[in-house]
Amino acid sequence: MAFANGPKPASSSVKTAVFQVKGTMKFKAVVANPDNVKFTVAIRDKNNSVVYSESRSGGYIRTFNLAAMEDGVYTFEINDGNAVQRKSFTVATTTARMVNIED
């Protein structure tokens, strides 16, 4: 339910980017935080349970190796108290069938 006359949420000075390191099971999270506000980085599973969390202030760059995580749907979440930024991702094990011609 929205409140048309309610207060507007405060804008956040925290800017984030989360992206996969090409060809790997690694993701990189980058946070630009010019006002040095405290924020939390979390990874949640499909049940919204926290599987990883840390609180920081200032700038932030971290590479997450997701190779050991179980298959499933997860969400990166960055929360500075004013705004929550989320990016979902899926960890999936796949198998590939191949044919090799032997000499």
Identify the notable features of this structure and list them briefly.
four-stranded antiparallel beta sheet; 103 residues; three-stranded antiparallel beta sheet; mainly beta; 0% helix; disordered N terminus
Describe this structure in words.
The chain has 103 residues and is an all-beta fold. It has no helices and seven strands. The strands form two sheets. A four-stranded antiparallel beta sheet has the order 4-3-6-7, with no helix packed on it. The protein has a three-stranded antiparallel beta sheet with strand order 1-2-5, with no helix packed on it. The radius of gyration is 18 Å and the shape is elongated. Mean pLDDT is 85; it is low at 1-9.
Q: Count of DSSP helices? A: 0
- Tally of DSSP β-strands: 7
In round numbers, the mean pLDDT is: 85
Shape designation: elongated
Tell me the quaternary state: single chain
The helix fraction, in percent, is: under 10%
Strand proportion, as a percent range, falls in over 45%
Radius of gyration, in Å, reads 18 Å
Measured between the Cα atoms of the first and last residue, the distance is 68 Å
| Largest sheet, spatial ordering of strands | 4-3-6-7
Structural class: mainly beta
Please write out the topology.
Layout lengths: L14 E6 L5 E7 L5 E8 L4 E8 L2 E6 L6 E8 L4 E8 L12
Antiparallel strand pairs: 1-2, 2-5, 3-4, 3-6, 6-7
Question: Short summary of the structure?
Answer:
The protein is mainly beta and 103 residues long. It is 0% helix and 50% strand.
